[in-house]
């Protein structure tokens, strides 16, 4: 994104404590790293970016971050566009509240954002003609494929690069 000319901010919403499967159960980790706090932190980041003189802000959310980005996408005054990649914790009600162009890039093999749920997201968004949307389910990939892939696996790397390209194209369209 930065190489394409976008100003990119990647805040540490986990305050140095990312989720690691071997450390503790996800539900325990989520108690200390809720998406409500993440949304408040993200709003502050968006405002700080706008204070630097940027008039349009796009937000991408990977996994946990997708829930945060859907919160930002309720208001056109917050962000101009959203991209969700292998989303987690996003509900049908969250998608009903989206008011900015949104692209959802999911994995075929994903217990956190299963294809059937993403298809429901697509149906909800299709009923909102005022909100441009795009939903794609990438075949033969698992949750996290866009950031956690084996770089030596050419197929996995190509699919991750394709998702990144689609994200760049989406932001190029809507974040001016």
From TrEMBL:
Pfam families: DLH (PF01738)
Alphabetized SUPFAM superfamilies for the sequence: alpha/beta-Hydrolases
Residue ranges annotated for the Dienelactone hydrolase domain, each copy included: 1-173
InterPro entries, per the entry: AB_hydrolase_fold (IPR029058), Dienelactn_hydro (IPR002925)
Protein name: Dienelactone hydrolase domain-containing protein
A GO term, aspect molecular function: hydrolase activity
Organism classification: Eukaryota, Viridiplantae, Streptophyta, Embryophyta, Tracheophyta
Underlying gene: LOC115699757
Source organism, top-level taxon: Eukaryota
Regions annotated as coiled coil: none
């Amino acid at each position: 994104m930065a190489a394409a000319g976008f100003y990119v901010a990647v805040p540490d919403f986990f305050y140095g404590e990312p989720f690691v499967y071997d450390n503790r159960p996800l539900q325990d980790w989520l108690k200390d790293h809720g998406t409500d706090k993440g949304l408040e932190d993200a709003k502050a980041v968006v405002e700080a970016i706008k204070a630097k003189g940027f008039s349009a802000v796009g937000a991408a959310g990977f996994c946990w971050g997708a829930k945060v980005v859907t919160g930002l996408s309720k208001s056109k005054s917050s962000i101009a566009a959203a991209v969700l990649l292998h989303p987690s914790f996003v509900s049908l009600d969250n998608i009903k509240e989206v008011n900015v162009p949104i692209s959802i890039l999911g994995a075929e093999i994903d217990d956190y954002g299963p294809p059937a749920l993403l298809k429901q997201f697509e149906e909800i968004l299709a009923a909102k003609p005022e909100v441009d949307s795009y939903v794609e389910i990438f075949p033969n990939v698992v949750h996290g494929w866009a950031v956690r892939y084996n770089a030596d696996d050419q197929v996995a790397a190509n699919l991750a690069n394709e998702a990144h390209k689609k994200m760049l194209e989406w932001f190029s369209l809507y974040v001016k």
